[in-house]
Specification:
This protein is of the alpha+beta class. It folds into 2 domains: about 120 residues, no CATH class; about 55 residues. The chain has 8 helices and 3 strands, in the order αααααααβαββ. The protein has a 3-stranded antiparallel sheet with strand order 1-3-2, with helices on one face. A hairpin with a 4-residue loop joins β2 and β3. α3 packs parallel to α7. The longest helix has 26 residues. The radius of gyration is 24 Å and the shape is elongated. This is DUF4956 domain-containing protein. Keywords: Membrane, Transmembrane, Transmembrane helix. It comes from Dyadobacter helix.
Length: about 200
């Protein structure tokens, strides 16, 4: 009986008449683009899954809100203002790295483009493809050799003087097992005979 009641509601509802096929095409392209970006570019390089929900939820919410607002007349300035507001949203109680913020910016941009683009599905696919390809090239070693940094606490402060930099690099390579090629001294604690370093290495 419940099934018959639901069937009557769906058959009498004009919900699907109000939602055009363009909406489903756009949301499909949007989701596919974000999935490729996060799963095959972000995860492949950083092996992190803790921000997956944040990326997808931000993208979906921004797509929905922008698509609804796009039904009314909205100037280019208002669109950029909306983009700026969404791009600054973040939990203030925890930090986020520059890389994670970049990907958050990208999923926001994809959702916004998918919602307000005036072109057809082929033009939208082209825009998303450009974002994916450029991000993939920049994350790889195609344009420039990728460098990563890691902050460590180091106790042999007698090696931090400029004249002994080769010894410092060699000691860091032996201790960390990383191909350290340069180092930056962030802080020195002479009371504890320790220093805070940022080591840079090629993965």
């Amino acid at each position: 009986m419940l099934y018959m009641y639901l069937s009557d509601i769906l058959s009498s509802s004009d919900l699907f008449d109000k939602i055009s096929a363009k909406f489903f095409v756009r949301i499909l392209i949007d989701f596919a683009s974000v999935f490729i970006l996060i799963r095959f570019v972000y995860y492949r390089n950083y092996k992190r899954t803790d921000l997956f929900t944040t990326f997808f939820v931000f993208n979906m919410v921004i797509f929905m809100i922008t698509y609804l607002l796009n039904k009314v007349e909205m100037s280019m300035g208002a669109a950029f203002g909306l983009f700026a507001v969404f791009s600054m949203l973040r939990y203030r109680t925890e930090g986020i790295s520059a890389k994670d913020m970049t990907y958050l910016f990208l999923v926001i941009a994809i959702g916004l483009i998918a919602a307000i683009s005036k072109g057809g599905w082929d033009e939208l696919c082209l825009f998303c493809l450009i974002i994916l390809v450029v991000t993939h090239l920049l994350e790889g070693d195609w344009l420039i050799r990728k460098e990563r940094g890691k902050m460590i606490i180091y106790e042999n402060i007698h090696l931090i003087i400029p004249d002994r930099r080769p010894e410092l690099l060699e000691d860091l390579r032996l201790r960390t097992g990383l191909n350290v090629h340069r180092v930056e001294i962030e802080d020195i604690d002479f009371l504890k005979d320790a220093t805070r370093l940022t080591v840079y290495y090629y993965p």
